[in-house]
Amino acid sequence: xxxxxxxxxxxxxxxxxxxxxxxxxxxxxxxxxxxxxxxxxxxxxxxxxxxxxxxxxxxxxxxxxxxxxxxxxxxxxxxxxxxxxxxxxxxxxxxxxxxxxxxxxxxxxxxxxxxxxxxxxxxxxxxxxxxxxxxxxxxxxxxxxxxxxxxxxxxxxxxxxxxxxxxxxxxxxxxxxxxxxxxxxxxxxxxxxxxxxxxxxxxxxxxxxxxxxxxxxxxxxxxxxxxxxxxxxxxxxxxxxxxxxxxxxxxxxxxxxxxxxxxxxxxxxxxxxxxxxxxxxxxxxxxxxxxxxxxxxxxxxxxxxxxxxxxxxxxxxxxxxxxxxxxxxxxxxxxxxxxxxxxxxxxxxxxxxxxxxxxxxxxxxxxxxxxxxxxxxxxxxxxxxxxxxxxxxxxxxxxxxxxxxxxxxxxxxxxxxxxxxxxxxxxxxxxx
Length: 432
Prior knowledge:
The chain is α/β, with parallel strands linked by helices. 31% of the residues lie in helices and 19% in strands.
């Protein structure tokens, strides 16, 4: 039987609520520093939830700021451009004219949304003195229409922007499976590379739902924490007092290439992207099944795909949203898959510090797993004070935990039931 092609991770890039590059984001996650605060991008004072995990003081790198395609770029697209640029610089390789068709692109992208400035334009021109909506305002010849507004909000808009900016002409896809998007985009990239379709992949995810429509939608679902007075403690995965997740934004990208080719060019190899698993729970729009059924399938598939046993996993970067149902379901799944080994798996949800990045979450958390492997450090599950008997796992509490990580597992469990699990292996564990 022909062995599977080994895929190396050689570049990382991040834009997150705890840092606008990989080094600062990782340093703050290691320290358990929160990126949650009062929302400042728009006036959220009339919402039941007034806190979020925003990207702060963000500016596009000068090399990107004059790009001719920026008129098509939304807020999250700009995060994606910056994270992708960092990842390519970190890898020390990027598409060239002669190999552009051997570069692929796989992205997890958020759903269509209207930006706050665009909503403000509608308010100014389509409401009366009492704030009532007046649709005739759209017909006013003075209404400042933006002809590319709709194009900017399509799920594949960021994909096209990245492909054009970096000159990639190979396989390309945009994945939108809610919170599982970033993880499934990386899994897709892994499969595409194993097929030999391309030699290099830029894979990741990006999102920003911190706008009035995004916030209102999650508020109506009752999914968000309402701890407005203590934002830094609002996201507390697996804690018995948890009361919802914190909405965040950001982007993460990884550069993938053939293991032997990476070694041959002397590349820095962070880890192997070794396994991918996917399932669809079809249980409830907003919740995973109590017995962990869908996540169990995804985790078992990822282990089998990587060719390792549960006993070889040392760290789980959990989906861990800080909602009652999700955290219990994920813990049930972990026990089912790991059995007696569960107590030896270090578990943390870095959403405790940077909130939930939705379509970008799986990609950024994949980067966290890779850095945890590199540094031999499981990042802290912040804000955990009160144990939940139904979340009886080995949480990394108090501070980050130094440890050798042979293999790391990352879960992304999306609204609607999509589940993604990824396995990353330490370079020392990869057989030649």
